[in-house]
Q: What sequence folds into this?
């Protein structure tokens, strides 16, 4: 899973393109990083750590410390620290290694309304994944399937209906417009 939270800053959307593009008619798939109940996944348990019930987490957020309860109150975070292989966390409900191991693969989610508000030009990765994508010339391109960051800023990956994938930087010259319904890719960045 590549979805991250909290907000990422990008160039703010510019005004609509000269030629008004139309979003594709295809239904939007479930967004990776957003559970069917609408909660946002902030981390996943990747294994047990030690014998006292701690778990290793793969984090999709900058910091999970502000969030104390996950999965509708089923898990209460007592502590979290950086470890050699992911974040090490302790939950009040997990007392031993067997219980920790049983959590392997469990996604940790919070309700969307617990996330900080976004400023202009910011977005949550979970909001981009699954968006239909069109080029500035109106061609339907497919859907956003991933948001990566290799150190120089976010890069979106788009998959077409034929399975062809390409990437474009999440910058104003490549992505002149996005909203909750669709994302526009400059034709020069379509591969």
A:
């Amino acid at each position: 899973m590549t979805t991250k939270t909290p907000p990422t800053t990008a160039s703010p959307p510019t005004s609509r393109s000269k030629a008004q593009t139309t979003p594709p008619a295809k239904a939007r798939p479930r967004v990776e990083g957003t559970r069917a109940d609408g909660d946002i996944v902030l981390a996943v348990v990747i294994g047990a750590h030690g014998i006292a019930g701690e778990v290793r987490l793969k984090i999709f957020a900058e910091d999970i410390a502000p969030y104390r309860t996950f999965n509708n109150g089923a898990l209460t975070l007592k502590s979290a620290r950086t470890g050699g292989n992911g974040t090490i966390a302790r939950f009040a409900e997990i007392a031993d290694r067997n219980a920790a191991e049983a959590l392997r693969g469990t996604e940790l989610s919070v309700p969307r309304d617990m996330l900080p508000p976004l400023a202009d030009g910011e977005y949550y990765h979970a909001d981009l994944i699954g968006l239909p994508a069109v080029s500035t010339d109106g061609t339907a391109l497919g859907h956003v399937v991933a948001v990566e960051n290799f150190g120089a800023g976010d890069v979106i990956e788009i998959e077409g209906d034929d399975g062809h994938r390409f990437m474009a930087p999440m910058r104003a010259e490549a992505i002149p417009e996005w909203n909750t319904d669709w994302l526009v890719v400059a034709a020069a960045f379509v591969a």
Q: What stands out?
A: Residues 75 and 95 are 12 Å apart (CA to CA). The longest strand covers residues 40-49.
